[in-house]
Fold this sequence. Notes:
The structure is a single chain. By secondary structure, the chain is α+β, with helices and mostly antiparallel strands. The protein is 46% helix and 28% strand. The chain has one domain. It has helices at 2-37, 106-114, 117-141; strands at residues 39-53, 59-67, 70-76, 85-91, 96-99.
Amino acid sequence: MKKLSSYFVIAFLSFGVLAIIWAGYSLGTTTYDFWKNGVEKQAKVISLDHSSGSAKGGNSYYYNLEIDDQIMIENFPYKLTENSSYSVLYLEGKKKAILGHSGNNIFEIYTAQIGSKFMALLTIAIFIFMPYGCYKMYSELLPRKDDLWRN
């Protein structure tokens, strides 16, 4: 039973590492798409559709936007003024928009996606130090996989 539990711990940590890698890849490719293929357009905020929040204070605000005579719902991590126009980067194929303009650099686009510079720097730090952490975790766990549950 201890051996099975040890393998469960290693599998659980491995799936966590894969989830973080997937999140980094997804954020990176979406940011790159906005940077290379994003078209600057004017979006008019029609109304607030709804908002959602978490217990730790992270809020998302979903707005009805009008872009090129098409109405879409898009979420933002901050409040926007209704009946105002904002410059957005728009991906035609994915029908996604973020606040920004065509002169933004890749970090500004990433910051607009995440919500703040602090969170953008924090996630970048996690993705940079993750390979070292994974290496240390596996180098410590795998040689002692049968002894993980001993005191």
